[in-house]
Design brief:
Blueprint lengths: L11 H15 L4 H8 L3 H8 L7 H11 L4 H11 L6 H8 L4 E6 L10 H13 L5 H17 L7 E7 H5 L5 H15 L4 E6 L13 E5 L5 E6 L4 E4 L2 H17 L3 H14 L2
Length: 275
């Protein structure tokens, strides 16, 4: 039987899946054996063990009873439920950190991969102040972002195409000092030989291809993946029939957006106007 090996450090859900599989294997049980004791299907067990289905508190309590592990899994599932990361995002990050090309479009905020630490902290603290996430969850986000940014330094360096809606560079985040430093970072990144950066100006109007952020990744095998988020979850799309329209729309957006030279000039203009 083929077994999907998970990295327990990928996410709390992945850690839960690895632990559940280890506990089951130690008893010599199949997924169907454990499922029968929990009154769920073996397919359900498989989905949790391979991080295709998040464990619920009820599932964890039932697994503890079946495995005789006290409240071990029930305690572990709290970490899964308390994570600030959207479902689907950890798998996206794993693919992003190995991609050969990254194509980004963002609205209203600088993409995480290009954020300064001060800008990123301002964004997460804003979420904390609104009660959307806890301080612990903010730390989780910032730690993961630092790992994602560090992965960009790998060899060979991934090529990045970035299209920023004009709102990204106009929105005041963290105050003038933080925003000025963030504009400096954008200009620094735009000068890298591995980066093409463009701005989609407001006057693009209805010709802008996307109303939501989107990321397209090219894998080492030259497969193109697409990632997008709703308020509740993230979706990593692998089916090329679904990815192809997004890729076409991205190329159309690149054609309509400002050139890299004009985009850098706009960013420099915004930078000069920050007081």
């Amino acid at each position: 039987m083929n077994r999907k090996d998970l990295d327990p450090e990928e996410s709390p859900a992945a850690e839960f899946g690895v632990l559940l599989r280890r506990l089951r294997d130690e008893r010599g049980w199949t997924q169907e054996d454990l499922g029968a004791r929990m009154r769920v299907s073996g397919t359900h067990i498989s989905a949790v063990e391979t991080n295709r289905r998040p464990p619920t508190p009820q599932f964890a309590r039932s697994a503890d009873r079946a495995l005789g592990t006290g409240d071990l899994l029930a305690r572990k599932v709290r970490a899964v439920r308390n994570t600030s990361l959207l479902e689907g995002f950890p798998e996206f990050v794993k693919q992003e950190m190995a991609a050969t090309e990254i194509m980004l479009f963002e609205l209203g905020i600088i993409p995480g991969l290009l954020q300064t630490s001060e800008y990123a902290e301002a964004v997460t603290q804003g979420a904390v102040s609104r009660g959307a996430i806890s301080e612990q969850q903010a730390d989780e986000r910032l730690t993961l972002l630092a790992k994602r940014q560090a992965a960009l330094l790998r060899e060979p360096t991934p090529f990045m195409y970035v299209v920023l809606d004009e709102s990204c560079i106009r929105r005041l985040v963290g105050g003038p000092t933080v925003l000025a430093a963030q504009m400096d970072r954008l200009l620094e990144v735009a000068n890298l030989p591995s980066v093409v950066m463009q701005v989609a100006p407001y006057d693009l109007g209805e010709r802008r291809s996307f109303d939501l952020p989107v990321t397209l990744l090219t894998t080492r095998e030259r497969t193109i993946l697409a990632y997008a988020e709703s308020a509740q979850q993230g979706l990593l799309e692998r089916d090329y029939n679904a990815v192809r329209p997004l890729l076409t729309a991205y190329h159309q957006l690149q054609a309509e957006a400002l050139s890299q030279a004009a985009s850098k000039a706009m960013i420099e203009h915004v930078r000069k106007g920050i007081s």
